[in-house]
Amino acid sequence: MISRRTFGKALGLGAGAAATSLTGTQGLPTASAAPRSGAGTPIAPTAHPGRHTSFASLKQVKAGLLDVGYAEAGPAHGPVVICLHGWPYDIHSYVDVAPLLAAQGYRVIVPYLRGHGTTRFLSSRTFRNAQQSVIALDIIALLDALKIEKAVLAGFDWGSRTADIIAALRPERCKALVSVSGYLVTNLAANLQPLAPQAEYAWWYQYYFATERGRLAMEDRTKRHDLARLVWSTVSPTWQFSDATFERTARAFDNPDYVAIVIHNYRWRLSLAAGERRYDALEKRLAARPAITVPTITLDAERDPFTAPGNGSSYRDRFTGAYDHRTLPGIGHNVPQEAPTAFAQAVIDVDHF
Predict the structure, then answer these.
(1) Contacts of 242 (CB under 8 A, 6+ apart)
(2) Alpha helix (H) ranges present in the chain?
(3) Which of 21, 195, 242, 256 is the most buried (most CB within 10 A)?
(4) Rounded distance, CA 197 to CA 192, Å?
(5) Which residues contact residue 54 at a Cβ distance below 8 angstroms, ignoring those fewer than 6 apart?
(6) Residue of 341, 346, 254, 309 lying closest to 45 (CA atoms)
(7) For residue 10, what pLDDT is reported?
(8) In 10 A of CB 207, how many CB atoms?
């Protein structure tokens, strides 16, 4: 096992930045029975999707390799919740969730992932890498920059994967976890095997991005815009979002590194693009599918084409701490924006396990 100091040195970082390492020891206790909310657990008020259109506070902070843009809501000294978006989305996936959690006293932080929105690389020389461990390191660097020791992590899509990785490898930084679609840590070897045809069909854009034709489409602003909107419609078939809702998020796609990050992420998953050797030790640990020991609620969206069959059974063994699983009827892929009350309640509940 590589130490924090050695890992930081390998990355060419100083002693402070070495704390962003994903390494760390952890035990693997036996799985506990699924707990349910107690009588004292706060109940989030019902929020209608689309009620909020913006965040009151947008900030920037230098963290690791990035100058991270993020939204913040709630009291500055409240317990922290980090909400992580996916692709093709941005911080507005949480525009209705954040006020619900802030009203319960949480300090809610919603960062733009690398390549999105106002998040920028500090150096033009940094490789635009989007392999899974690197994005997790970004979030740990953000925690360090904001002097946050531990937070509840909640995410979907890329955000679920990132939160899962931190919970698995750095559980001391993760108080509890809400993970849409369950255990999403990527195993590159397993990813080389074909899925059932219907599942492959849902991943059409991943294969499109593997081609030069797909990369050129992403370079074209109009085609990039229309492609993302098509994905929204197909993976969230019951969500009647407005033009304004989509356009608010689409502005985040104009980041100068957006195309490089998106293309690298999907090509890396298919082993068509290399990561960086300095992260090999982390990826080796992730390939072993490490168990997650922190309190967790997993959410499956009924209308999401990426939801695995079996009501969470396919990944249940990866969660060995306090655990609950919930299926959201009629909801598609963008769970926090389509079902903000259910998502916020999951955060509140898991914090009270």
Answers:
(1) 50
(2) 4-10, 97-103, 132-145, 158-169, 188-191, 197-202, 204-209, 212-219, 221-235, 243-250, 258-269, 280-287, 335-338, 340-350
(3) 21
(4) 14
(5) 95, 248
(6) 341
(7) 35
(8) 12
| pLDDT recorded at residue 4 | 33
Q: Which two tokens stand for residue 351?
A: 């914090």
State the amino acid at position 180 in one-letter form: V
**pTM for this prediction:** 0.90
List, in order, residues 6 or more apart from 74 with CB less than 8 Å away.
Answer: 98, 101, 102, 105, 106, 107, 108
Strands annotated E in 45-183:
57-63, 66-73, 80-84, 107-111, 120-121, 151-155, 174-180
In this structure, the number of other CB atoms found within 10 A of the CB of residue 158 comes to: 22
Contact indicator for 168, 290 with CB cutoff of 8 Å: yes
Say which residues have a Cβ less than 8 Å from residue 138's Cβ, sequence separation at least 6: 63, 64, 65, 66, 68, 111, 113, 114
Q: What is the dihedral of CA 115, 119, 121, 127, to 10 degrees?
A: -20
251-286 pLDDT, tens per residue? 999 999 999 999 999 999 999 999 999 999 999 999
Spatial distance between the Cα atoms of 192 and 213, rounded to a whole number of angstroms: 22
Taking 50 as the pLDDT cut, the residues of the chain under it are 1-20, 25-34
pLDDT score recorded for residue 9: 34
User: Residue 151: what pLDDT?
Assistant: 98
Do you know the residue count of the chain? Answer: 353
Residue of 179, 188, 164 whose CA lies nearest to 290: 164
Q: What pLDDT was estimated at residue 191?
A: 93
Which tokens sit at 148? 């946050």
Is 153 in a helix, a strand, or coil?
A: strand
Helix (H) or strand (E) holding 297: strand 296-301
Using DSSP's 3-state secondary structure scheme, residue 196 falls into: coil
CA distances from 327 to 27, 122, 123, 164 (A): 29, 40, 42, 19
Look up residue 317 and give its two tokens.
């063994």
